[in-house]
Predict the structure of LysR family transcriptional regulator.
Amino acid sequence: MITDTLRVFVTVAELRHFSKAAESLNLSQPGVSLHIRNLENEMGAKLLHRSSKQVRLTEAGEILYKHAKQMMHLYDEAKQSIRLLQHEVTGQIRLGASFTIGEYILPGMIADYAKQYPLVNIEVTIRNTEEIMRGIREGMLDIGLVEGKVSAAEWNAVTPFMKDQMILIAPSDHPLARERVIEPKQLQDQIWVLRESGSGTRAFSDQFIAEHRLRVVQTYSFYSSQGVKEAVVSGLGIALLSEWIVQKEIKYREVAQIHLKEHQMEREFSMVQSSGVETTLAHRMFIQHLLTYIS
């Protein structure tokens, strides 16, 4: 069907690589090339500039890409509407989540969703908040679940769906671990273990350090919250992490929770969708399920 060829074309255009597109579509690379060649013959125009490193759209390719996305969406909507008559929800959701959400909240929620809608294929990408937002902006992801502040200006919908409690932790033998409650000023001249730049957790930590004008002796940054947690367990320094991540380690006293006097540390988890992108039935059911599951 022409939709199969258009799907191949769109995948190549978005991944900018024939072999990556072939892997994503479970096709051979010659099969992908044949689809593109047939499509170029049918359109009577070159659609892609090819090089050894990547491919990019020609002017004709840009025009076709825009319309192909619309055609694929309409085709998927029609298919889902027909299957809805048979009480089936089908389709694909390209879901992006920041690390805390993707590793500690999303697995159980998706498992629950899959019991109700087993014919929906969910592809999950877990990256930091900045990378998930970029994926939404570039049309690589349908829905993003991120932590921290999100500007609503460029997005069709930003929906906060839950509060997250942030916790200050230290190695179990750290001097601060002996204190029942401390003042923020007691955090001067500490070694901090942080997430990488672009992470919502890193943004929260940077804001906390700046807000209390804390002098920092040294920082170490890791590309995952798991790495930060293990570094604190090993005695490297102190850190701010989501309560979701450190519950077990606090319970078994592998790390110590440091309580701050009269200081609540909360942030929001938000669902983000790009402006101008129509949602399918599978998307709508997922969003409804997410809000119900969390509540």
